[in-house]
Amino acid sequence: xxxxxxxxxxxxxxxxxxxxxxxxxxxxxxxxxxxxxxxxxxxxxxxxxxxxxxxxxxxxxxxxxxxxxxxxxxxxxxxxxxxxxxxxxxxxxxxxxxxxxxxxxxxxxxxxxx
Length: 114
Description:
This protein is 23% helix and 18% strand. It is α/β, with parallel strands linked by helices and 114 residues long.
């Protein structure tokens, strides 16, 4: 699922409604939710968009990091980080690196994060 934690008041281009349109245009096939209080982003340490998390069947976090190594949406990725880690998990292999910093714009916080 995708969760939008951006401040829609000060950053209307990143509002949940605009991001839902983007998800639809890009044919993203997953549930898309809003984190109005930004509590979820803060709880999990999300810092940018996108900032993916991979959980196992017991809902234990097994990877936090980038989808791939493309620096911009229009770039072609040469490494599919999330897909590779998902395939490792599904085949019973160990995910060697449980954190690989995400690539993206920072979350638009409603207040200064401490």
